[in-house]
């Protein structure tokens, strides 16, 4: 029933493409037995309308077991999604919230209490212009996005203000996701090249810091150029650099 | 550093671009090509070339919207057409309206309420069929920006020559000597007419013929869309 | 109760009427609003007309000025239509330079004149290369209740039918024009293009002559201009729901019927004045 969809995994689909989901009891909620394995989960770029699956963004169809599908594409504009970690820039302080620019269509808000160890008395030291690594806890099209700098256990867990002496720049969202993938070739290759610190926001913002300004800049340029390179070309480039730099 | 992918479709029958006549069975359009993601600052961009006609398109958004233009349940779409020389005039306004309403029908604007989308179309060279080139460039740029769309669309211009023959995708010279000129926007789902804009007088049969011809021509453009995207993503696999 | 329903959910309000095949103002789906034409309404203009299409009211004054023909077309005169949507006619328009809708409507009027060849521009020439008429058709909407294009096209046609230009002679010696205001003659209107507008509701239901509210809720708008020979001089659909060729055919049929009705109406009005 999903074979047609699975056959298309990894290929290019365009908005307007349709798939028929056979609804013979399998992917509707059946009272008879647990058929959860056949439930289709639509990720970004796909939506369901009745028993049809519609594509609304162009890109490559991706699949994850058991039945998760989404469209993967190289976009530049960030659309906030719940649970994603992003790099934001504090733009203003008003009352007890900070306004943070995360690259979406409107600014996100961040409460001053949403930091590790923050209380009404003990305010975090956040200035306008600071960089923040934060997680979105409210992100939906009808409401203002909301950030926190603590995890569910109240720990900072790497989030909060950062960014002394590094360099912030923008890449495509696709590249940011590639860097964050669990087994990222790109990341592994970079690590071999230079020792560096890197912060990757899902909103396409990248912050890097290496030993010395020159190396930081080299790294930033490398990452920007990775956007359009095939893995083979990339390895060649990295190889050349390793010889020259060492 | 910008690297972009330029792909040109070469139809099997290549013409010198001047005289091409067609009946519904053998629809010919000029050589066309597209380059996506060629601007670094915009969220999506494309240039579209039909023969010698060429248009550059850029999309910005979903971005912050002016309070006066905010719509509570959908995104505000703004289309700006820039002519090659001079300031935009009434003619460009009328074209903007056509392009905007066509885009509005294909975009899923309700997925980005209270935000603004801006489509800027810059005419680079006009050698006939300009409105259809605006539509094609706009569609490619919106696709590049990854805006949610329910379907794609394409623009096709038909000219009816004084002797009654239908010419698809006419050049400026062919437009000048034609009796009537029609531009259609065709959707990719059911190949129906989303937009029409006409000049000159013509009979009902002639219009129906032109629609049929445009629908046939749209097939070529839609298969080009797919092919160009496939080439673009072939690198990132 | 009904008023509250209308404000809270206008779309559902209209749907409930359409389900019964009628419209909130009591019309059937394919019915035009009452059309009234008054000509010669402005005595100081060279030609004028006032048209009411239901509540939509448009007035047009034609002003004729003497001008020099352009270098490219020495034997042709000019005709310049301009549509104005002042804040007076609806709260949706703001004062200031004309908005997109007004500009698009002006362009559409110019397109109708050009496409239908209702007037031969050569008729406006007085002396080749030296003197010609320039007709300014100023269309002002007084009350906006939808279907602006139909009303404007009809007003312009009626005003041009009403236009009487004074006789002009170029003095052979001085080359100065001599205008004889006593002798006037009408324009030769060769074709009678009539616009008929439609809108599509919920991607399926077809409405004729939409009112302002229907226009706003519609998913597509479409205007068909036909002349007395059944030829099309403009099919303007700026976007919206895709339509099939068959559906268009149906609309064109309705537009041709409308052309006949309006043509008859104009003839009657013109006759009543003479």
UniProtKB/TrEMBL annotation, chain A:
Residues annotated as transmembrane: none
Ranges of residues in domain K Homology: 166-211
GO biological process: CUT catabolic process; exonucleolytic trimming to generate mature 3'-end of 5.8S rRNA from tricistronic rRNA transcript (SSU-rRNA, 5.8S rRNA, LSU-rRNA); nuclear polyadenylation-dependent rRNA catabolic process; poly(A)-dependent snoRNA 3'-end processing; regulation of gene expression; TRAMP-dependent tRNA surveillance pathway; U4 snRNA 3'-end processing
Top-rank taxon: Eukaryota
Cellular location(s): Cytoplasm; Nucleus, Nucleolus
Molecular function, one GO term: RNA binding
GO cellular component, one term: nuclear exosome (RNase complex)
Keyword vocabulary terms for this entry: Cytoplasm, Exosome, Nucleus, RNA-binding, rRNA processing
Domain Exosome complex component RRP40 N-terminal: from-to ranges: 12-67
Stored InterPro entries: Exosome_RNA_bind1/RRP40/RRP4, KH_dom_type_1, KH_dom_type_1_sf, NA-bd_OB-fold, RRP40_KH-I, RRP40_N, Rrp40_S1
Family: Belongs to the RRP40 family.
Name of the protein: Exosome complex component RRP40
Organism: Hippocampus comes (Tiger tail seahorse)
UniProtKB/TrEMBL annotation, chain B:
Keyword terms of this UniProt record: Cytoplasm, DNA-binding, Exosome, Nucleus, Phosphoprotein, rRNA processing
Domain Exoribonuclease phosphorolytic, chain residue ranges per copy: 29-148, 152-216
Annotated localization: Cytoplasm; Nucleus, Nucleolus
GO biological process: nuclear mRNA surveillance; poly(A)-dependent snoRNA 3'-end processing; rRNA catabolic process; rRNA processing; U4 snRNA 3'-end processing
GO cellular component: cytoplasmic exosome (RNase complex); nuclear exosome (RNase complex); nucleolus
Domain of life: Eukaryota
UniProt xrefs under Pfam families: RNase_PH, RNase_PH_C
Main location: cytoplasm
Quaternary organization: Homodimer. Component of the RNA exosome core complex (Exo-9), composed of EXOSC1, EXOSC2, EXOSC3, EXOSC4, EXOSC5, EXOSC6, EXOSC7, EXOSC8 and EXOSC9; within the complex interacts with EXOSC3, EXOSC8, and EXOSC9. The catalytically inactive RNA exosome core complex (Exo-9) associates with the catalytic subunit EXOSC10/RRP6. Exo-9 may associate with DIS3 to form the nucleolar exosome complex, or DIS3L to form the cytoplasmic exosome complex.
Family listed: Belongs to the RNase PH family.
Name under which the protein is recorded: Exosome complex component RRP46
Organism: Hippocampus comes (Tiger tail seahorse)
Lineage: Eukaryota, Metazoa, Chordata, Craniata, Vertebrata
UniProtKB/TrEMBL annotation, chain C:
Chief location category: cytoplasm
One matching Pfam family: RNase_PH
Residue ranges the record marks as coiled coil: none
GO CC annotations on file: cytoplasmic exosome (RNase complex); nuclear exosome (RNase complex); nucleolus
Alphabetical UniProt keywords: Cytoplasm, Exosome, Nucleus, RNA-binding, rRNA processing
Molecular functions per Gene Ontology: mRNA 3'-UTR AU-rich region binding
Protein family: Belongs to the RNase PH family.
InterPro entries, sorted: ExoRNase_PH_dom1 (IPR001247), ExoRNase_PH_dom2 (IPR015847), ExoRNase_PH_dom2_sf (IPR036345), Exosome_comp_Rrp42_subfam (IPR050590), PNPase/RNase_PH_dom_sf (IPR027408), Ribosomal_Su5_D2-typ_SF (IPR020568), Rrp43 (IPR033196)
Domain Exoribonuclease phosphorolytic per the UniProt entry, residue ranges: 31-166, 193-254
UniProt GO BP: exonucleolytic trimming to generate mature 3'-end of 5.8S rRNA from tricistronic rRNA transcript (SSU-rRNA, 5.8S rRNA, LSU-rRNA); nuclear mRNA surveillance; nuclear polyadenylation-dependent rRNA catabolic process; rRNA catabolic process; TRAMP-dependent tRNA surveillance pathway; U1 snRNA 3'-end processing; U4 snRNA 3'-end processing; U5 snRNA 3'-end processing
Organism listed in the record: Hippocampus comes (Tiger tail seahorse)
UniProt protein name: Ribosomal RNA-processing protein 43
